[in-house]
Design a protein that fits this description.
Helix content: 25-40%
Organism: Aedes albopictus
Family: Belongs to the glycosyltransferase group 1 family. Glycosyltransferase 4 subfamily.
EC number: 2.4.1.110
Structural class: alpha/beta
Number of strands: 12
Pfam families: Glycos_transf_1, QTMAN_N
Distance between the termini: 27 Å
Shape: globular
Order of helices and strands: EHEHEHEHEHHEEHEHEHEHEHEHHH
Strand content: 15-25%
Radius of gyration: 22 Å
Keywords: Glycosyltransferase, Transferase
Length: 370
């Protein structure tokens, strides 16, 4: 019988990519995987524990339970006390204590409370970046102070010893790598993010329209997953940018990588980012990253890739669009110094395997292609 129980209430995007990346290194008999599709995130968080409590078999030999922070682990253990004997590991792709909302009154505190309770129920709490870990721990006290007449103390002190950072493993070895050749085309800018408010599409639109106004030549691809409705700022962007907008919307995997391999600059305008898989993938494909000097980005990228204001971003892009040789110099410097190995599945997957197998009595397996 399987000794590892894997639970993912939101089996899509980076959550699915993580499991798919490291589970291929396990024998199928070693683990049982229980998932829900990546829809209606809020309901997955609310009811996932109840659902899995009814679907996970009661006759088992599980030694390790691995899940993401979407699951309310405290609820699951309460409903299924037989799982309490497992070594319980929780992976944080994001945290709800620091998740942006348009209006503070819109914040549903229950999701943050779920994650705090999950951490208190876990033996090992793993974050995908130092920024994610610190922003979670730093916000516990202020978040709980929302309660009008209850003051809880020392929760950070209880949780911090259980916390660690293990970067999300990106399978660079499966991604095509660019061979740089002389290129006289206009600079190709890429924005590969979800079309939602926390990725700040309005900021991108303002930047592109300002560049257009300054009459510099460029091409742009606005990629990523659409929200249920197109952001208002994107509705007429094609009419305004005309032939400069060469891709607009979601692409197949092959088309996506072909576009990245043709790109020159990958831009983030995010107001929220705990890691940024799309930025690292695009960077690996040869796109020079440009990101805000905040969130997780200073942890990953050098100062030369970071901007503090919209004017700084526009100036960087304007200078590169006007002077291709200047851009090529800056891109060459970046690739001479950036260490992709820190974020590679080759380096990180074995750490996931060791962590998950540590209490199962299993032996390390060969890592297929990693």
């Amino acid at each position: 019988m399987a000794k590892v129980l894997i639970i993912e209430p939101f089996y899509g995007g980076s959550h699915k990519q993580l499991l798919d990346t490291f589970l291929q290194q396990f024998h199928p008999a070693e683990y049982d995987l229980f998932t829900l599709t990546a829809k209606k995130w809020h309901w997955r968080s609310r009811i996932g524990a109840l659902y899995f409590s009814e679907t996970i078999p009661r006759d088992h030999q599980y030694k390790t339970l691995f899940t993401s922070s979407v699951l309310n682990l405290a609820e699951l253990i309460g409903l299924r006390p037989d799982l309490a004997i497992c070594r319980k590991i929780v992976y944080f792709h994001e945290n709800q204590l620091n998740y942006p909302v348009r209006e503070i009154k819109e914040r549903d505190c229950q999701y943050g409370l779920n994650q705090i309770m999950t951490c208190l129920s876990a033996d090992q709490i793993v974050f995908n970046s130092q920024y994610n870990k610190i922003s979670f721990l730093d916000n516990i006290k202020s978040f709980l102070n929302i309660a009008p007449d209850l003051k809880l103390k020392n929760l950070r002190e209880k949780l911090e010893p259980r916390c660690e950072v293990l970067y999300f493993p990106i399978p660079f070895h499966t991604i095509p790598k660019r061979i740089f050749t002389k290129n006289d085309k206009p600079l190709h800018l890429i924005w590969p993010h979800r079309w939602e408010h926390d990725k700040n599409p309005q900021f991108l639109t303002n930047t592109l329209l300002e560049l257009n106004k300054r009459q510099v030549d460029f091409r742009v691809s606005i990629l990523g997953e659409r929200a249920q409705s197109i952001p208002e700022c994107f509705e007429n962007i094609g009419e305004l940018l005309k032939e400069k907008l060469i891709n607009f919307g979601f692409l197949s995997k092959d088309e996506y990588y072909r576009t990245l391999l043709d790109g020159d600059v990958v831009i983030s305008t995010a107001g929220h980012e705990f890691y940024g898989v799309a930025m690292l993938e695009a960077s690996y494909c040869g796109c020079l990253p440009v990101a805000p000097n905040k969130l997780v980005y200073p942890e990953i990228y050098p100062e030369t890739s970071l901007y503090n204001t919209s004017n700084q971003l526009i100036k960087m892009l304007y200078n590169w669009c006007k002077n291709r040789h200047l851009f090529e110099r800056d891109r060459a410097i970046f690739y001479e110094n950036f260490d992709f190995e820190k974020y590679s599945a080759v380096s990180i997957v074995p750490k996931f395997i060791s962590m998950i197998r540590a209490h199962t009595g299993g032996t390390p397996a060969m890592v297929n292609g990693v």
